[in-house]
Amino acid sequence: MMRNSLSKFGQGIKLPGLSFLLAFTLTGLIIAISDAKVLAKISSPFEFIKSAGAAVGNAYLALFQGSVFDVNLTKGHSFLQGFYPLSETIVTATPLILTGLSVALAFKSGLFNIGAQGQFIFGAIGASYVGFHFQLPIGIHILAAAFAGALCAAIWGGIVGLLKAKTGAHEVILTIMMNYIASYFILWILKTKQFLRPGRIDPIAPEVNENARLPLLAGDNFRINIGIFIALGAALFVWWLLTKTTVGFKFRAVGANSQAARTAGISVPFVITSTMMICGALAGLGGAVHVLGSEHALNADIAGSFGFDAITVALLGRAQPLGTVFAALLFGALHAGGRTMQSSTGVPLDIVLVTQALIVLFIAAPTFVRYIFRLKKLNSSASLTSKGWNG
Amino acid sequence: MSEIRSNIQKRRLRGVSVISALSVLSLIFFGFVSPGKDKTTFGFVLNNEWVILKEWVIAAATGARIFSLISVIASLFAILAYRKRAQIIVPVAFATFGIFMSFITWAASGKFIPFTGLLQGALLLAVPLVFGSMSGLICERSGVINIAIEGQLLASAFVSGVVASLTHKTIWGLIAAPIAGAAISFLLATFSIKFSVDQVILGFVLNVLVIGLTDFLYKKLLVPYQATWNTAPTFGHIDIPILSKLPILGPILFSQSVVVYLMFAIVATITFALFKTKWGLRTRAIGEHPTAADTVGIDVNKLRFKNVMIAGLIAGVGGAYYTVGSVGAFGKEMTAGAGFIALAALIFGKWSPLGAVFAALLFGFADNLQSTLTIIGVSIPSEFMLMVPYIATIIAVTGLVGRVRAPAADGVPYQRGGAH
């Protein structure tokens, strides 16, 4: 029994493991062959391989030091200071968990939500406005700001759901368009009198009030805040919703087969609209947590690529709440580490995107991984699918 | 049958109501509630073409009223057509034109609008969109969803810029670009056809991959070694004799770089090939009903693979437009989402070549109108103008324009003896 489940577990992580191996190997190759110092030694194969190995090794070491633990940071400080990178990883991962859950939940209902970016923006706008405009007591202010963010984004996401439910327009196109509209909307709103910080002409909103900021968890030296618990709570909520409630069952039924669900008496338009609203609220909460937890002020680039990375996060997490949390932590680590890698070894941060894309590509193509490693059979649960334009 | 008919009528009714309402609103708002107080000047001369009319000056209020009236009359024709259960597209087009012109006349009160330049700029902004949507068209007509247009454009823009910089020759840039586009297509085709990966997810991942790679190489090579890696020369304009002298049309259509002429040729070829050749018939067959195509002896997956590769070549030429076709140097993420707009143009254009070109031109026009109005200093926030193409797309895909239906087997991997 024990051996059986162990081997099952081994099978289960074989595919992700091999995908990671493949992705990091390819990334390493790219880092090596784009390095001028390595290329200079191309005439002697031994030196070439040695310097290539050194370049890749240094880059990956910096990636680790920037995301988990850096012994250099402990000099002259306490040992704990060495974990500053881990705190950065978690701070980066927090919004990613929430946006990732937004995409993952949509997948469960058979929807491909590319709109987390726009929903994140509206969440950030809503939270920021309540955060700086009102004076509320401790605790209540955070709740109000986070709620405002989630609500704005739920409406923004709900529009997509409603349009799809009413007209059958495809959510991929709708959400892509809504992302653009949101990104111009934030540029505009930052120029308005309500949002422009007094005395500034560049697009930045006033800082949110002290009461609206998420409390720090490990003192002033670390940016880690209670946002991570909000994100984990949201993951728990999504898990509960999907597995323990009737609504969640309806979501999954429509996701599995909308025709059959309709025949069984489930209202597909209701599922689509409510899914998109909850997805919006989740991504919007991500925006709220990002503003209230680490940024404190709304700016034009507030969303970064949280909404887009969310898609790779959800895909890597196979649209499971727990998987999404781990995937977000991994990508958070890649981003945080990538910043250190860029500053200390000169390898541009953007390589992280390549790694991310490769991991997801290989995870989505189990037959390809099997083909590369000449494996006969690889246990893998059915890979994620979206629905074509007519779906 | 009657149900299909009534569905069409329902959509027409929606279209007619919206366009009539907009026409009346435009007449009321631009013509009477807040009329322009000054004169609007339209300029019609750009280069050294023959001159019929150099400028046209009209009081903004009068102009807006006239154009709105045109759109109201066109709306009446649309209502008539609807009641006769006929096509409403022509009167709706006229009405849209009237509303647009009314808006421009109103917005540019007291200003000078370079009309020819506005249209020329629109065409230029539409060039990569047209190439991108043609790439999407060929893929999707064969049953493969192509979300990776953005990646194809960006990769080929990068490669053509680098190759042209290294060789100091524009032509090598133009030759290398389609190869880069085809390389992305190769990944799309291999993973979607051979390994049956979900095409929407795959396309998305390929975009991320290309954005990551080009950003990485841009910072690693193009910025530090700019002199060797990122100084691509550009194609000059070729004036076609006589035609380039035509008023208005000349500078817009016949005084362009070779990439733009290639675009005309490619659009014409695709339109012809898709509907008049054996290849076109087979392509449409594998996109609509691959099983039927298979039974008559068409190798579905082989043709799909081939077509996806062709699509990559076409998108590649569009990518070259960004570098050797216009500004020369490559810029980080310089395609800025054009691939997604191209995709929208394809859907807006109902998966037909000319429809997609028309939609791309419309997006180009909206984009250029926005920058023109910003330059001449109109008091509408430019951000709202920038939203217009995206809002228009949403209106289009939610069924206002008519029935939008993708090829039936679009996005469905084909396996012999499978469910499809």
UniProtKB/TrEMBL annotation, chain A:
One of its GO terms (molecular function) is transmembrane transporter activity. The chain crosses the membrane at residues 20-40, 52-69, 89-107, 114-132, 138-160, 172-190, 222-242, 263-285, 323-341, 353-373. It is a multi-pass membrane protein. Keywords: Cell membrane, Membrane, Transmembrane, Transmembrane helix. It is found in: Cell membrane. The keyword Transmembrane helix applies. Coiled coil: none annotated. Its main location: membrane. The keyword Membrane applies. Pfam families: BPD_transp_2. GO terms for cellular component: plasma membrane. This is Unannotated protein.
UniProtKB/TrEMBL annotation, chain B:
The chain crosses the membrane at residues 12-36, 56-81, 88-106, 112-131, 143-165, 171-193, 200-218, 253-275, 308-330, 336-363, 384-404. It is a multi-pass membrane protein. Pfam families: BPD_transp_2. One of its GO terms (molecular function) is transmembrane transporter activity. CDD domains: TM_PBP1_transp_TpRbsC_like. The keyword Cytoplasm does not apply. It is found in: Cell membrane. Keywords: Cell membrane, Membrane, Transmembrane, Transmembrane helix. Its main location: membrane. GO terms for cellular component: plasma membrane. PANTHER family: GUANOSINE ABC TRANSPORTER PERMEASE PROTEIN NUPQ (PTHR43370:SF1), SUGAR ABC TRANSPORTER INTEGRAL MEMBRANE PROTEIN-RELATED (PTHR43370). This is Unannotated protein. It comes from freshwater metagenome. The lineage of its organism: unclassified sequences, metagenomes, ecological metagenomes.
